[in-house]
């Protein structure tokens, strides 16, 4: 078994950093659907701005909001307005095609960088 990249939101911007929240990253549900992330799923978050890396879990954000919020302790490492990459992985015994999207400054999908969801299903 190998752990392979399955989901990636590339160049998203953090819209909120909330220290008073109980940990996690909140992600717009449209983006979650586009790359196949689930509520509660473990993700790796990397800041293109500071170089910080952390693991946390996903909380579903309001659909169409563009919200990407770092919550709890994660907000100490990655701040509002930082550009990040969010990655989900899968443990598998066979190669998989990751679902990767590039987003614009408002966290709306600019384009798919890999297979589109309709060709994966």
TrEMBL record:
HAMAP family: PanD. Pathway: Cofactor biosynthesis; (R)-pantothenate biosynthesis; beta-alanine from L-aspartate: step 1/1. It is found in: Cytoplasm. Its cofactor is pyruvate. The modification Pyruvic acid (Ser) is found at residue 24. Its EC number is 4.1.1.11. GO terms for molecular function: aspartate 1-decarboxylase activity. It catalyses: L-aspartate + H(+) = beta-alanine + CO2. It is an enzyme of class 4 (lyase). This is Aspartate 1-decarboxylase. Pfam families: Asp_decarbox (PF02261). The active site is at residues 24, 57. Binds 1 pyruvoyl group covalently per subunit. Heterooctamer of four alpha and four beta subunits. Keywords: Autocatalytic cleavage, Cytoplasm, Decarboxylase, Lyase, Pantothenate biosynthesis, Pyruvate, Schiff base, Zymogen. The gene is panD. Catalyzes the pyruvoyl-dependent decarboxylation of aspartate to produce beta-alanine. Substrate binds at residues 56, 72-74. Is synthesized initially as an inactive proenzyme, which is activated by self-cleavage at a specific serine bond to produce a beta-subunit with a hydroxyl group at its C-terminus and an alpha-subunit with a pyruvoyl group at its N-terminus.
